[in-house]
Amino acid sequence: MYMTKPKLSVIILNYNTKELLSDCLKSVKEYMNEVPMEVIVSDNSSNDGSQEMIKKNFPWVKFIEGPNEGFSKGNNRAKSLVEGEMVLFLNPDTIVHKDVFVKTVRYLDEHPKVGAVTCKLVLPNGDMDKDVRRRFPVPWVSFQKLVLGKSKYYYYEDIPDNATHEVEAIQGAFFLTYKKLLDKVGWFDERYFFDGEDVDLCFQINKAGYSLVYYPDVYITHLKGVTKGKVKKWRHKLTDQQRKRIRMAGVASMELFYRKNLWKKYPVWFSYFVLLGINLYKVIRFVRVVLLSSY
């Protein structure tokens, strides 16, 4: 699909989302002429015929597969196939629209101090996916969101969603960055199974001296929640055990992020207090997800 070395490598991680992946790839193909690019699908041992569908309908896609060991390992698996200068992590439950590739790549090209960029993510009901722009989950921000129920600051709701601006963290559903920067910071931390890995990668990019930007001049559609089993229509794609594991992994990622990135920024006594809070939250999540859902 490209004549020269690709400038952009699009990595799509798939696990039993054959129909959604097909729609995503169709939308990608429609706008592949905007930027010299390649598409890589990394498959986490799907059993829904995804592999056969790709080989039959999208022979131009590079394909690699391995065991289902989570989001981080699944995406990192594709690094050996990447030939592009830039890498875009794209969810299979997304639909790409006109100018997304060309304008986000151009933005990154024209702003050398920016390490990663995302576009606007729009949900099927027309609302913006708030997870597209977030602040780092430092203790006070997390306390406001999880305990006080005040998430306006966390989601940058004090800034219009049609304004281009720097953010601390962007979402892994559409995450455009440089390969050389990924190589420098180590790609996704594979200790994260699901959730938190995108925020952690943003933290490492920021730590390396680069900013991250929310660029809403273009948008994609994000079905959201499919890979977590939250959408009723696609819930059959995951077993109850898999859904519970994903939900619990989200809390485990909180502790990993804090120990890795924030532990030394606060007094030891305070850090232990934070970990106590995280583990109490983990117990609450366990009761809600594992025990109550069994009845």
TrEMBL record:
InterPro entries: Nucleotide-diphossugar_trans (IPR029044). The keyword Metal-binding does not apply. The chain crosses the membrane at residues 266-284. GO terms for molecular function: transferase activity. Gene3D superfamilies: Spore Coat Polysaccharide Biosynthesis Protein SpsA, Chain A. Keywords: Membrane, Transferase, Transmembrane, Transmembrane helix. The keyword Amino-acid biosynthesis does not apply. This is Glycosyl transferase family 2. It comes from Candidatus Woesebacteria bacterium GW2011_GWA2_33_28.
